Amino acid sequence: MSRTTQPRRHTVRGNAAARHGRPADHRPRALLTPGFAPQLGGSVSDLDAWRAMLRDCIVELDAAPLAHAEAAPDGDYAGWVYRRDLGPIGITDVGTDPVRVARTARAIRRSTDAFFLLSIAQRPTWSLHAEHQTSMSAGDAVLLDSAQPFRLAADDFGHHVVVNLPKSHLTRTFRMARDVLGRRIPAGNPMLRVLMAGVAELGREPGSLPDGSETEIGHTFSELLVATLRWEENPRPEDAGAVLGRRAQLLRMQDFARRHLAEPDLSPRLLATAFGVSPRYVEVAFREGGLSPSRFIRETRLETAARVLADPRQRHRSIAAVARSVGIEGPSTFARMFRARYGLSPRDFRHAPFGCAAGDPPGTEGREVPRGS
User: Fold this and answer.
1) What pLDDT is attached to residue 8?
2) Whole-prediction pTM value?
3) What is the number of other CB atoms lying within 10 angstroms of the CB of residue 63?
4) Which residue has the higher pLDDT, 297 or 33?
5) How would DSSP label each residue in 83-124?
6) Higher confidence at residue 241 or residue 298?
7) Three-state DSSP state, 217
8) In which region does residue 193 sit, left (phi positive, over 0), alpha (psi from -120 to 50) or beta (all else)?
9) What are the CA-CA distances from residue 98 to residues 4, 77, 126, 159, 235 (Å)?
10) If residue 305 lies in a helix (H) or strand (E), which one and from where to where?
11) Treating both helix axes as pointing N-terminal to C-terminal, what angle do 293-310 and 331-342 enclose, rounded to 10 degrees?
């Protein structure tokens, strides 16, 4: 499990919709139904109980009714939180009458949580994180950091699917752009659509997963989360018609480099030849994107190798084979480069626990630490 807190069980106390004189079906249904096992959380008609479930299933969050919701007869409330643990990640289905949810500085100070939360809106909502105020339609998503304050709210019934991933699990295999936090990830992102289709499939037949398959499914979902973020950073050029000039060429060259990682002779000069430009043009284009071409190739090779080494499904592949698959032919060269980047040998990294970021000194699990260049 990603969280060790043992949650309390919660049950519905009455039908708030009926007491308000509203149709009982005005609210959407949860995607992750109570038939799951193992399953954490439940449905409630009390905001304090719902807030407690958020703490048990995601992170500690403050929650308060919106002004127009406070006037509801008898102060009735209805909401749910259902969580499914899948190896390295958790998936939580959250529904609530109109509230404002906040991760406050006070909660952060008294918490040891270190998670990224991909919150996927199932109904219109808005978020505020890292100075980005974002309006989201159904299907849009936003990446939140539990170590930074954020807010979420919906004017009507709110419904989110939250993918909860330890920060160390993501940062050990993916170099994330700082400005991705709090920005809207549109529903049209194809990787996000695949991820949500997988969540919907999980909810279609609760309890039907084969024994022992949760961890493998969790790794698949975490890969889809990384692919979702990577797509936002580098959309394919054919889908970015407004991007012109050197930026468009950079996207094409980055895509080419990723598809040819296994070729040992991949280099800035090969990119120049493949795209009919000068080596100087390649250098300038990549540096405008934040990295030199040589460093981009090296970092992409190591990040790809790290994802393979962290995946239990790939344990049958030798470390030498993983190195060759990313274009590094010498095992000693690969080991030296990998240790400089992640602070561990490839073998030790492969067996490191998910909850501990590779290369972190004891007691700093999940924190950002300097990496080798």
Assistant:
1) 38
2) 0.61
3) 20
4) 297
5) EEEETTEEEEEEEESSEEEEE-HHHHHT----EEEEEEESS-
6) 298
7) helix
8) alpha
9) 29, 9, 12, 10, 34
10) helix 293-310
11) 90
